[in-house]
Design goal:
With 207 residues, the chain is an all-alpha fold. It is built from twelve helices and no strands.
């Protein structure tokens, strides 16, 4: 790790992650390289290795940042409402993910390889934030649905979080994918991130 203040280190890591996020808007995970990311920052490609050893570590840090933003949104939902019906909560939760398409996009990649190719300390940092997202969803359930049992809330989390991994590929499709579905005569109903999430949350909550 290079010498310097913690603030400088944090700022440089943030710059690297932001550069990766910008590239990810127009490039695939496969085509983004450390060299490409370095070219989009204010320092050399070699310097990146002082902060991240692999491309996967950078993407894991980006995923962590996306989770942090989502957690803030969940806290806002909880603080802005004294009570919510199950349908209202489903609506709010669906909108919170509609705002975080990049979170869902990264989740839809090969999560196993991304974690496997990151150092344990980077993975722990990510898992801490991931754990906080579980807690915050549980906090929402605790506040709005006091009638739910501990098992009910656990069942919700075990159903909803795995479901999140499939939202992006089921809702964001390319023209090539649409054409293939058409020629394969697959009668597929296309839904938005909001629509598919709202429907699923209502189903899990028994609305």
């Amino acid at each position: 790790m290079p010498k310097g203040s913690e603030e400088l280190t944090a700022a440089r890591k943030e710059e690297i992650v932001t550069a990766c996020a910008e590239l990810y808007k127009t490039m695939s995970f496969k085509n983004i390289t450390i060299k490409e990311i370095g070219s989009a920052t204010s320092f050399t490609r070699t310097s990146i290795y002082n902060y991240f050893q692999t491309k996967e570590e950078i993407f894991l840090a980006l995923l962590q940042r996306e989770y942090e933003s989502w957690i803030c949104r969940l806290k806002q939902i909880r603080s802005d409402h004294d009570r919510m019906t199950r349908a209202e909560f489903a609506d709010a939760l669906a909108h919170s993910l509609e705002e975080r398409a990049n979170l869902l996009k990264i989740m839809s990649m090969n999560h196993y390889d991304m974690e496997e190719n990151s150092r344990i300390e980077r993975l722990i940092e990510f898992k801490v934030v991931y754990g906080q997202s579980l807690i915050e969803v549980r906090n929402c359930l605790d506040k709005f649905f006091t009638e739910m049992t501990v098992q009910d809330k656990q069942d919700f989390i075990f159903s909803f979080f795995p479901f999140m991994f499939g939202i992006y590929p089921y809702t964001v499709v390319t023209e090539k994918q649409r054409e293939a579905m058409t020629q394969a005569k697959v009668n597929y109903v296309y839904m938005s991130i909001y629509e598919i999430t709202y429907a699923e949350v209502k189903k899990i909550l028994g609305v």
